[in-house]
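User: Could you go from structure to sequence for me? I need the amino acid at each position, not a summary. Structure tokens:
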């Protein structure tokens, strides 16, 4: 194996945040874009969770949690002091706590708002209101600083913006209004308008064992 391998799905927010970390850390991987409704056997055999993203390291070790892949990327990056910059010691506890709230609370309500028909006896407006409560809390943080923990982004920003973007897309689809306040809108705009966004969301062909290899970032 000449490159680490990332199994990914373009629109998955967990996969987006991992690809963002790889971009910032300047780590090139073989990327295998898969169809979540028709998962290839090779992927199913390697993944315990059966969901993306997963990283297969050169030594065949498998990393299945997106946050763990982000931390791996920081440790592998050759950029100077990158871990201290994006995962600073003085904010580690708070960074992990806000990511945990996103992954286990905001995501719960986001799914039930965005995909309301998938859940029996689901109250879409209730979950929209619960999601908005997180948006307001985060907006308050961002009204005090450019990013969650100061004037530079951390892995908290990397980890959460793809989910806030997904919330925005759901609101637009359902014609909701006034779902963002200025600070969180400006924060999300930074990522969506970033020069790296095009590379981040490049549309790869679906992977199959006999196809040519694709690499991320694309070149």
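Assistant: Here is the amino acid at each position, in order:
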């Amino acid at each position: 194996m000449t490159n680490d391998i990332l199994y990914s799905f373009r629109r998955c927010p967990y996969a987006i945040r991992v690809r963002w970390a790889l971009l910032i850390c300047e780590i090139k991987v073989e990327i295998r874009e898969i169809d979540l409704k028709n998962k290839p056997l090779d992927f199913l055999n390697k993944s315990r969770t059966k969901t993306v993203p997963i990283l297969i390291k050169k030594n065949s070790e498998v990393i299945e949690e997106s946050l763990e892949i982000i931390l791996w990327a920081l440790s592998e990056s050759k950029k100077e002091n990158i871990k201290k910059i994006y995962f600073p010691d003085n904010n580690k506890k708070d960074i992990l706590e806000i990511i945990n709230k996103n992954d286990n609370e905001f995501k719960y309500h986001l799914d039930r708002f965005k995909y309301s028909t998938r859940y029996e006896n689901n109250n879409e407006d209730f979950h929209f209101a619960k999601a908005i409560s997180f948006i307001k809390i985060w907006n308050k943080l961002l009204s005090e600083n450019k990013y969650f923990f100061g004037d530079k982004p951390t892995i908290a920003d990397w980890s959460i913006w793809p989910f806030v973007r997904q919330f925005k897309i759901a609101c637009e689809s359902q014609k909701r209004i006034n779902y963002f306040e200025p600070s969180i809108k400006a924060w999300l705009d930074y990522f969506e308008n970033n020069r790296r966004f095009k590379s981040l969301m490049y549309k790869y062909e679906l992977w199959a064992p006999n196809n040519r290899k694709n690499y991320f970032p694309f070149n």
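One structural detail worth keeping in mind: The chain has two domains: 5-83+200-216, 86-192.
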